[in-house]
Amino acid sequence: MHVYLPTNDLLFKKLLTSEDSQHILKAFVKDLLGLEFERLMPKQTYHIDSYKKSYEEREKMEVKLTEVDILAVAEDGSYTTIECQVQAQKYFHERSLFYLGEAYRSPFGNLAKNEVKKSNFSSLRPAYGINIVNFHLFDDTESALQLFRLMNPETNRLFLNKEGKELLVRGFLSLKNDVLNTQHAAYHWHYYFKTGEVKTDAPDYIKEAKKKTDFLTLEELAMN
User: Fold this and answer.
1) pTM of the predicted model, to two decimals?
2) Each residue of 54-72: pLDDT tens digit?
3) Contacts of 84 (CB under 8 A, 6+ apart)
């Protein structure tokens, strides 16, 4: 029987956007970006029927559009984009920044009715991005987890909004690069995405993630 890795598009969405996977989604974002949210909800919840429908619709398009795999919204209105990119693409750096920028600008002009001083810019919220890639994006002698943020390089001052939150953060986890601190939570995600297995000392939520993807591999992918 063919075994599918968690980087499979369907498994990836099932893992992070199922109705009972919100705690896994929150832990995933915290482990990779260091950001903790009280609530983090996917804009589109996974369901096998809706997945098949959207896949069929994409296949009918003459021009295949590349979209963000997962878009999640936190309690403060901030967006987190999550993508799993197995194959390298031209202009990938530009593409990843483009979708982060799109997530940041998307709420522009969506003003609350009870807002006293209305400004289109007041509707903007922070945007964070995670890319899981299966190719060398940066120097393979450096860490597999790379985080980029707006910062003054002379003072190390972060560019924050009036609530003290970063406006843009982009993270990359390369599965081709094995340089990663084994004490970092991202190490267990890296191992899981790369092998489909989990180590005995992995957090419980990653072990739960494996059970979800193992079940789906047997029950649903085999029927497609």
Assistant:
1) 0.84
2) 544 444 444 343 345 899 9
3) 7, 9, 12, 69, 131, 132, 193
